[in-house]
Amino acid sequence: MKNSISLFSSYRFTHIILMLVVLALIPLTSQAEKREFDLSIEDTRIVLVGKRDFHTFAFNGQVPAPLIHVMEGDDVTVNVTNMTTLPHTIHWHGMLQRGTWQSDGVPHATQHAIEPGDTFTYKFKAEPAGTMWYHCHVNVNEHVTMRGMWGPLIVEPKNPLPIEKTVTKDYILMLSDWVSSWANKPGEGGIPGDVFDYYTINAKSFPETQPIRVKKGDVIRLRLIGAGDHVHAIHTHGHISQIAFKDGFPLDKPIKGDTVLIGPGERYDVILNMDNPGLWMIHDHVDTHTTNGDKPDGGIMTTIEYEEVGIDHPFYVWKDKKFVPDFYYEESLKKDLGMHNSKVFKGEPIEE
Amino acid sequence: MKNSISLFSSYRFTHIILMLVVLALIPLTSQAEKREFDLSIEDTRIVLVGKRDFHTFAFNGQVPAPLIHVMEGDDVTVNVTNMTTLPHTIHWHGMLQRGTWQSDGVPHATQHAIEPGDTFTYKFKAEPAGTMWYHCHVNVNEHVTMRGMWGPLIVEPKNPLPIEKTVTKDYILMLSDWVSSWANKPGEGGIPGDVFDYYTINAKSFPETQPIRVKKGDVIRLRLIGAGDHVHAIHTHGHISQIAFKDGFPLDKPIKGDTVLIGPGERYDVILNMDNPGLWMIHDHVDTHTTNGDKPDGGIMTTIEYEEVGIDHPFYVWKDKKFVPDFYYEESLKKDLGMHNSKVFKGEPIEE
Amino acid sequence: MKNSISLFSSYRFTHIILMLVVLALIPLTSQAEKREFDLSIEDTRIVLVGKRDFHTFAFNGQVPAPLIHVMEGDDVTVNVTNMTTLPHTIHWHGMLQRGTWQSDGVPHATQHAIEPGDTFTYKFKAEPAGTMWYHCHVNVNEHVTMRGMWGPLIVEPKNPLPIEKTVTKDYILMLSDWVSSWANKPGEGGIPGDVFDYYTINAKSFPETQPIRVKKGDVIRLRLIGAGDHVHAIHTHGHISQIAFKDGFPLDKPIKGDTVLIGPGERYDVILNMDNPGLWMIHDHVDTHTTNGDKPDGGIMTTIEYEEVGIDHPFYVWKDKKFVPDFYYEESLKKDLGMHNSKVFKGEPIEE
Ligand SMILES: [Cu+2]
Ligand SMILES: [Cu+2]
Ligand SMILES: [Cu+2]
Q1: Mean pLDDT in residue range C22-37
Q2: How far does the centroid of ligand 2 lie from the alpha carbon of residue B144, in Å?
Q3: Which of A134, A322, B347, C242 has the largest CB neighbor count within 10 A?
Q4: C2 by DSSP, 3-state: which?
Q5: What does the pLDDT average to over B81-93?
Q6: What is the predicted pLDDT for the residue at A27?
Q7: C276 to chain B, closest Cα gap in Å
Q8: b/e for B308-321, b at 16 or more Cβ within 10 A?
């Protein structure tokens, strides 16, 4: 009898395990959705700050490019149409492209560059999860550095880490450097001796960046993306920066600090507990990256605003500022998965 | 009987635990001292090396600024009087400022900048422990990068790590970069195209830096602070660099190496066992940071001198050098907690 | 009886342990070979790319210098003869030089520089294991930055890590930056305001670098060495970069990413599983480091070529390229330990 019970319970146990395994597998298969997006590349005038405009080759006419937000394992198709007068590609930075190397987007290595007027279709599986990005891979010293050919690609993990699950607000900060002497000379620029003189978060310099609005108890995730040519040192005041992910991959354990050094191509996801109401700076500690041209108090700077303290302080530079949401794609990130254009980043078409 | 004994011993055990808890809590409460310091900001001429002088806005007339050395949890008050002709603030870099955001020292965000002749009082709790620093937050591209407005803020931990307890000698190295064309044009500088041409440890370039004097068996702690505008790669010869802290926070486990990459705003505490008598270089491996103007053999360089080998070697550049102690605040760090001015760093007042 | 058996087995156990200990010690003593090498320093013309030549002070007339490949614990002797008209030394970067500080190769600190025509002998134990390098320590802003005075020093570990044992192909990538205006002015250069305009892997710019040829199942090790003056961000497409070693020391656990930030003097060993047949880029993500002078598509770039996909693709820039093996010392690394000159890196002697 004992044996038969034991056998029975053993059978039941095996059964339960099997069911759990099956359940665990379901998301991996059933959720692998097919997603198809269209991107155009357009000659577009954007404004970094004040009167400092720039001729870009902008994906869907905006810088940063549209947010592409998909689930790990999704089958992604992107049709890219080049409406400019120069060749381009898209490299999906961080995607492993297993079995799809010809969708890696490198001219002279994985494809012929997309000529003006042509359309090219990229197909790949969204793998691995994490903070990724996409950018042109033609003449990167010009197209990536100062023609705004970059945007965020966020791949949601099937199994998020505990620390990720605590996040209440999610922000994307793409960091760039610009050489204004090439602003309106498309097809030129990015040469030795260039004098970099503008620095931006999501293509805007302070004071035309936007605050990060929180309340006590929020947990924010800053997805830093090194989209430009320089190293940046992102310093957040008043809170502990927990550096949790590098290039989309979780670190073994978050590294604590207050300043995050990030180089071109790198991404760091920093998670901070909003436990300290106040007005706090986030800025590049490379001092010269907080200037606009030859003027101080610009560049890569923004603030965290707690609703508990408000913004109505006589000394606060942004006390009368009009708040523009979604500047960090924080609203788009809450929407359904897919591709999200944003009016916030839309420039002016440039007619030939 | 057994039960009563058991109960008794259980009672005693609980009692002992409670006592231990109480004992553990005592330092956290009883040692939270109130500490009040005065700082002035003064137009001051310092010399980086040779005849290369610089007009600075120096805290208490010295660069680096006075060492502020306090215990974790201390209540700190600093009265800052601006005796220059330009506005300034002090940001206490790394301090969490819990509940005291208006002491964070950021103009246009947490206060009006301190106008010439005015005094502003900062009040905050020294939290967290570690290698911190303080600096002006007005026009940082000029004031921090090349007007010497920075100093060390060391917060002793209540519960030091085992590796910290092994340290026998403690050194502060603040790294900076300078543009000599602005040397005597206060209120100007820090613009695109600037040519950096001087690099310093604690505001001195080699050969006017000082050696680190040790004997076999010492364990030294180098508190590297990125106070300037560039990334530095600090290479120590002949010893294993154990990178133990980033921005004041202990790393999960020290990272071993021989070269420490440090960006603006960052701090790394490197601990090295002095087990190898000799004369050894510590220098920036960014080669161009070991020049003074257009001359080689300068900048961010110093040596470790073991008493076992002495300095009387015919080839040794510093064999006749006059040793100036406390150049790394190593003597001040041994004194009682508080603020420590240092004659070593004192410049010349500049009269209008 | 029981006791005696027990005693006997205890004796046998102790005996076995002792034997194991003895066996474990044998390699540490018996394999510590004496190795002696000769190096000369020669005025040598090399070509970075196209017609861009450079006057170097090359070890054995080649840049990079010969591969020195030894076993941990070996006793190394190197006789260095200076055949140029300027003084030099060799610093063995990463070697602890325990008890041999006068072989550390620093002018004015551990020796008089080696004058033209003179020979100096360095003697040291190869310790610790890992990816090390050697370079001149005189006027490093010129000699190291742009006179090619550097080469790899690989110290094999006596007890390799499990991850190291999986490696099937081993590559050395030394990264440098050059200022062409000094190309043919030996004894000058490396001053503030210098415009860097060439960037190289093993002293060659794309497209004159060489592909990394693999097949599925290979595990490659990229030994990145920051030999120049700038920070580089080495991005590998299509694979997970496992950063396993810093400065020769194993990290506690490899860090995953796709972009490795490396500063001057640093080394990172990156291990990648070749599980994804295709043609893949490896390049510096500092965009301006992928130019040659004022031309795009150059600098620090190369590819991984899988034999499974071949190179005969119409879009592939290197489909007709003549393959030169050992460009990454990958062949030399398979040979017996010792010093390996390489024809690949040999320049032209410059006669006075
Ligand atoms: Cu890329
Ligand atoms: Cu700050
Ligand atoms: Cu060195």
Answers
A1: 68
A2: 10
A3: A134
A4: helix
A5: 98
A6: 47
A7: 32
A8: eeebebeebbbeee
Please enumerate in sequence order all residues whose Cβ is within 8 A of that of B80, keeping only pairs 6 or more positions apart, or say none: B38, B39, B40, B41, B88, B90, B114, B119, B120, B121, B122
In a mutational test of the B interface, the residue from C123, C141, C252 whose CB has the highest number of chain B CBs within 10 Å is C141
Backbone angles phi, psi at A3, to 5 degrees: -60, -45
The three-state secondary structure class of C8 is helix
**Which chain B residues contact residue A253 at CB under 8 A?**
252
Give the contacts of C210 (CB within 8 A, at least 6 positions apart): C204, C302, C323, C324, C325, C327, C328
CA distance B294 to chain C (A): 5
Instruction: List chain A residues with CB under 8 Å of C293.
Output: 192
For A63-106, how does the pLDDT look when each residue is reduced to its tens digit (9 = 90+)?
A: 999 999 999 999 999 999 999 999 999 999 999 999 999 999 99
By Cβ distance, the residue of C255, C278, C294 closest to A191 is C294
Nearest residue of A to residue B99 by CA position? Answer: A276
Q: Would you give the DSSP letter of residue B239? A: S
Residue C252's pLDDT is 96
Question: Which chain B residues have any C-beta within 8 angstroms of a chain C C-beta?
Answer: 195-197, 231, 233, 235, 237-240, 252-253, 255-259, 261, 275-281, 285-288, 290-291, 293-294, 296-297, 303, 309, 314-317
Distance from A156 to chain C by nearest Cα, in Å?
17
At residue A8, the pLDDT reads 52
Encode pLDDT of B144-197 as tens digits.
999 999 999 999 999 999 999 999 999 999 999 999 999 999 999 999 999 999
Instruction: Please report the DSSP string for B136-168 in residue order.
Output: --SSHHHHHHHS--EEEEEEE-SS--HHHHT--
CA of B307 to the centre of ligand 3 (A): 23
Q: Encoding tokens for residue A176?
A: 């760039």
CA distance A60 to A175: 20
Number of H helices, E strands in chain A: 3, 23
Is-contact B283 B241, C-beta < 8 A? Answer: no
Compare all CA atoms of chain A with the CA of C193 and give the residue at the minimum distance.
A193
For residue A3, the model assigns a pLDDT of 47
Q: For A258-276, what is each residue's pLDDT tens digit?
A: 999 999 999 999 999 999 9
Judged by phi (left if over 0) then psi (alpha if -120 to 50, else beta), residue B191 lies in: beta
A217-236 burial, b at 16+ Cβ within 10 Å, e below that, comes to: ebbbbbbbbbbbbbbbbbbb
CA B68 to CA B76: how far, in whole Å?
10
Residue numbers in A near B190 (CB within 8 A)? 287-288, 291, 296
State the Cα–Cα distance between residues C204 and C63, nearest whole angstrom.
9
pLDDT tens digits, one per residue of C151-190: 999 999 999 999 999 999 999 999 999 999 999 999 999 9
Domains along chain B with CATH numbers: 34-156 (2.60.40.420), 162-324 (2.60.40.420)
Quote the tokens at residue C199: 């960037």
Residue C177: closest CA among chain A residues belongs to which residue? A192
ipTM of this predicted structure: 0.92
